[in-house]
From TrEMBL:
Tagged with keyword Transport: yes
Domain of life: Bacteria
GO molecular function: ATP binding
PROSITE patterns (UniProt xref): ABC_TRANSPORTER_2 (PS50893)
Residue ranges of every copy of the ABC transporter domain listed in the record: 2-218
SUPFAM superfamilies reported for this sequence: P-loop containing nucleoside triphosphate hydrolases
Name of the protein in its database record: ABC transporter ATP-binding protein
UniProt similarity note: Belongs to the ABC transporter superfamily.
Keyword Membrane: no
InterPro entries, per the entry: AAA+_ATPase, ABC_transp_ATP-bind, ABC_transporter-like_ATP-bd, P-loop_NTPase
Length: 219
């Protein structure tokens, strides 16, 4: 279970963008979080992904209370969560080829020997041709780069996925393809999913249940 209880979070002291938020995702469950731009849903997603420390409240992951965020979180906890952001160009190192971008988490966790085979498998799963793997972010489209970012999120086989507006910048066909990849992974692995977005139709078709922002957090 991923549980967020009474979360208040922001980026400036005394100016929270999320107030008293409550959210749970069960193992194997897909939960959609629906809200307009600027409401704070991406901040809550970053808290759920252990990338932003809340000002108040608790996060519980797999039965244990989280006490460290970002690099202070234990490796086993950090690697249990895969994250895909809205803007792939802001989350991808422009110096890396797509091959190295996907392999980066494996190398960072001492699993370099697995990189070649795993990258090859995931690139095919996400619809990236071998000819694209040697290119850098500026040499591919937003959709192709987001495919690589999704492959990177899956490369350590996380138990939890956080997709923060993953498809907001993509066309309908690429959106459908990436959602299908996530769903295939969930069925095969039993991973839980938090999908954040503002497209009600997409979230309701994709997720087991969809929550509006005003059901999750205080005004």
């Amino acid at each position: 279970m991923l549980e967020l209880d009474a979360i208040t979070a922001g980026y400036e002291r005394g100016a929270p963008v999320v107030r008293d938020a409550h959210l749970t995702v069960a193992a194997g469950e897909a939960v959609g979080l629906l809200g307009p731009s600027g409401c704070g849903k991406s901040t809550l997603a970053r808290v759920a992904a252990l990338l932003h420390r809340p000002d108040a409240g608790t996060v519980t992951l797999d039965g244990s209370r989280v006490t460290g965020w970002r690099h202070r979180a234990p490796r086993a906890r950090r690697t249990a969560i895969g994250v895909v952001f809205q803007q792939p160009r802001l989350s991808a190192d422009p110096r890396l080829s797509l091959r190295d971008l996907i392999a980066e988490p494996l190398r960072a966790t001492g699993r370099r020997d697995e990189a070649a085979a795993t990258v090859r498998e995931l690139s095919r799963t996400t619809g990236l041709g071998d000819d694209l793997l040697g290119r850098r972010p500026h040499e591919v489209s937003d959709g192709q780069l987001q495919r690589a970012c999704l492959a990177r999120a899956l490369v350590l086989r996380p138990r939890w996925l956080v997709c923060d507006e993953m498809t907001a910048m993509l066309d309908a066909s690429t959106t459908a393809a990436l959602v299908a990849v996530v769903e295939a992974y969930r069925r095969e692995s039993g991973a839980g999913l938090l999908a954040v977005g503002h497209d009600r139709v997409l979230l309701e078709r994709w997720c087991d249940r969809t929550l509006r922002w005003d059901e999750v957090a205080a005004a």
